[in-house]
Design brief:
Elements: E1 6-11, H1 15-25, E2 31-37, H2 40-44, H3 47-50, E3 54-58, H4 66-76, E4 81-86, H5 92-98, E5 102-105, H6 110-121, E6 126-127, H7 132-138, E7 154-161, H8 167-181, E8 183-191, E9 195-206, H9 208-217, E10 221-226, H10 234-242, E11 250-256, H11 264-276
Helix pairs in contact: 4-5
Length: 277
């Protein structure tokens, strides 16, 4: 028997909702429902033997409630990816602080829910786009799904320049970077000849598409592409929710043109002026 790649546990007080979700998701070739419960208490002792990849959790279940259940799951089981399904918008912050990796309204369309589950299973945090403004205000570095009815908003971006870089071109790129992206360079590691990693903080949250388009506007940029995110489990998300320093950020690999003359003295002067300004 072939085991499907995404194992899902359903927790919802209403049987008709569980039946609907089961029928909907088991049509997908990569998804399987491994259990369903009407309360979180009944599922607590079954988490380890079932080992679900995703828990779809009703936020308003009786008893300990969906938010507290999420907190208990994330404390006791790793990895544990909980997607909160809700009819209200009043517990987003509590859900994220509890360790939830998804927060969606129950009126979500079938294909959007399927996309969200796959995103969370790959290690992304997924939130309904109707909460995008709230997320941007409370935590603008949260990653949101980029598919369907969702949006991606980030504030921290890492630029990776791996190839040998002409100094003059690198200097021009750095000078234009902050103004073009409305950002501040917070960290620069490496050297012009061995590769450079640059961390920038945007003045306001932006989507990857907007960031990519602005980078391509800079004349010194030959090519730029987003580096795929690494797999991340829910315990990592729980950490970045509480610690800004560990929140994820987008990475772009940037290749610069090489058509200018190298000037090591110019680079030294530029770095010195940045340190003293």
């Amino acid at each position: 028997m072939i085991t499907k790649s995404i194992q899902i546990l359903l927790i919802d007080y209403h049987e008709i909702v569980r039946c609907g979700l089961r029928h909907m998701l088991e049509q997908e070739k990569d998804m399987e429902i491994v259990g369903e419960y009407s309360s979180a208490e009944k599922s607590l002792h079954q988490m380890k033997p079932l080992s679900p990849d995703i828990v779809l959790m009703d936020s308003e279940i009786p008893g300990i409630g969906g938010i507290e259940a999420t907190r208990l799951y994330c404390q006791q089981y790793t990895p544990c990816n909980v997607i909160i399904l809700t009819t209200c918008d009043g517990c987003l912050t509590e859900a994220l602080n509890a360790g939830a990796t998804g927060y969606l309204l129950k009126d979500i369309k079938q294909q959007d829910l399927v996309r969200a589950i796959r995103k969370v299973n790959r290690g992304e945090l997924v939130i309904d786009e109707r909460f995008a403004l709230q997320v941007a205000t409370e935590g603008p570095e949260y990653l949101l799904s980029a598919n369907g009815t969702y949006a991606t908003l980030v504030k921290k971006v890492e630029l990776i320049i791996r190839e040998f870089t002409n100094i003059t071109c690198l200097l021009r790129f750095l000078c234009k970077l902050e103004g073009t992206l409305e950002a501040t360079i917070t960290q620069q590691i490496g050297s012009w000849d061995k590769g450079t990693n640059i961390i920038i903080l945007l003045s306001k949250a932006a989507s990857p598409a907007d960031i990519l388009a602005k980078l391509e506007e800079i004349l010194e940029v030959k090519s730029v592409k987003e580096e795929p995110a690494a797999q991340t489990n829910s315990s990592h998300y729980k950490k970045f929710i509480t610690k800004i320093s560990t929140r994820p950020h987008l990475k772009f690999v940037v290749t610069l043109h090489q058509d200018n003359v190298n000037n090591k003295k110019e680079l030294v002067n530029f770095q010195t002026s940045r340190l003293t300004s």
